[in-house]
UniProtKB/TrEMBL annotation:
Gene3D superfamilies xref list: MFS general substrate transporter like domains
Lineage: Bacteria, Pseudomonadati, Bacteroidota, Flavobacteriia, Flavobacteriales
Protein name: Multidrug efflux pump Tap
Top-level taxon of the source organism: Bacteria
Compartments, record wording: Cell membrane
Family per record: Belongs to the major facilitator superfamily. Drug:H(+) antiporter-3 (DHA3) (TC 2.A.1.21) family.
InterPro entries: MFS, MFS_dom, MFS_trans_sf
PANTHER family listed in its UniProt record: ENTEROBACTIN EXPORTER ENTS, INTEGRAL MEMBRANE EFFLUX PROTEIN-RELATED
Bilayer topology term: Multi-pass membrane protein
Amino acid sequence: MKKTDPYAALRFREFNIFLLVRFAMVFAWSMQFIVIEWEVYSLTKDPLSLGIIGLMEVIPAVAMALFAGHIVDQSEKRGLLIKCIFGFSVVSLGLFLLTWPRIVAGLSTDLVLYLVYFLVFLGGIVRAFLGPTIFSLFSLLVPKKIYPNAATWSSSVWQMGAVVGPAAGGFFIHWIGVHWSMCFVFAFSLMALMLLLQIPKKPILNPNLGEPIMKSLKEGIKFVKNTRVILGALTLDMFAVLFGGAVALLPIYAQDILKVGPEGFGILRAAPAVGALLIMFTSAHFPLNKNAGMKLLVAIFGFGVSIIVFGLSTWFWVSVIALFLSGVTDGISMVIRQTILQLRTPDAMRGRVASVNSMFVGSSNELGAFESGLTAKLMGTVTAVVFGGGMTILTVLGTGFFFPKLRKLDLRKDLEEHEKQ
C-alpha cells in the first residue's frame, strides 16, 4: 500500500505563496467586516444597521456570481486575482479614510453611513469574482493527483484566516481604535498583492474563448445540474448551512440560556472553528478519499445531531463540546466537498462551477442567520435550533436517497484516473 504524503502540496513553491495570499485575504476580509460592524453600530446604535451591512455585501455577490464565473473562465487567473485584490484594497482604503476623524468631522452621520454601505456594496462585487478566481488558480498550481491534499491545506488556511481575522479585529479595536485597525487591513491586502506578483502568469485552458455570455452561463448551469455528484454535494452543504445556523443565536444562549457572559460567548464562538481546524490538519495525514460520499453524508448527519444537542443543552461545557463536534463534522464536509469540486470540474468550467458554489454556500450563510433569527422569533430560541438540526438530518436522508451516485462516491478512482493521465 502506497503511503500518502501529508505535505505533498506544500512541496510546490507557488502553492505555498498561494496559501499565504489566501490567508492574508481571508484574514483581512474577516477583520474588516468585524471592524466595520463595530463602527456602524457605534454610529447608529441600531441592530438593523448590522443586517444592512450583510445585505449590502451579499446582494451583489450573489447577483453577479454567474457573470463573474463566465469572466473567470475567459481570463488569465493570476492577472484577474491581482485585479480582485486591488479592488479590495481600494475598498479598504476608502473605509480607512471614512474612519479618520479629521476627514469625517464635517460630514453628517447619515452621509458617512451611506458611504460605508456603498463601499461594502463594492466589496460584494469584488467578492463575486474573488472566490471563483481563487478556485480556478488553485488547480493550476499543483498536479491533479494531489488535489485532495492541496484542498485540505487550502481549506485549513481559509479556516485559520476566518478564526484569526475576527479575533484580531476585536483586539485591534481595543488597542489602536477603528481607524488604525482599518489601516492594518489595508496593509494586509497590499501584502497579498505583493506576494501574488511572485506567481507567474498561467495559461487559459478554456478552448471556447470569446464564447457568447448567455451560452457560457447556460453550459455552466447545465453542467452542475447534470453532474449529480456535484449538485448533491452543493445541495447538501447549502441546506446544512441554511438550517444549521445556530451560531447566529449564540449571543442569546450566552446571555439568557447558559448565562456565561462575554467570556463564555467567546469560547462558544471559537469552539466550531477549533473543531474544523483540527479536522482539516488531521485529514492531511489521514485522507478522506475512500468512501468519500458516505463520509460526507455521515458528517452532515453528525452536524445536525450536534446542533440539536447544543440547542437542548443547559450545561455550558456540553454546549461547547457540541459546537466543537459541529466544527469537526463541518470540517470533514468542507474538505470532501472541495475535493469533489476540484476533481470533477473540467478546467474550462472552473470559474462557472465555483460561482454556482458561491451562490449555493455563500448566500446560505446570510440566509441561515436570517432563518435562525426568524424561527427563533416565531418558535423560541431552543425550538428554532432543534428545528434547524432536525431539518439538516432530513436533508441528509433526502440527499442520500435522491443522489445515489453521491452516496456511493469513492474519490480514489478519480485520483487513479488522474495519475494515469
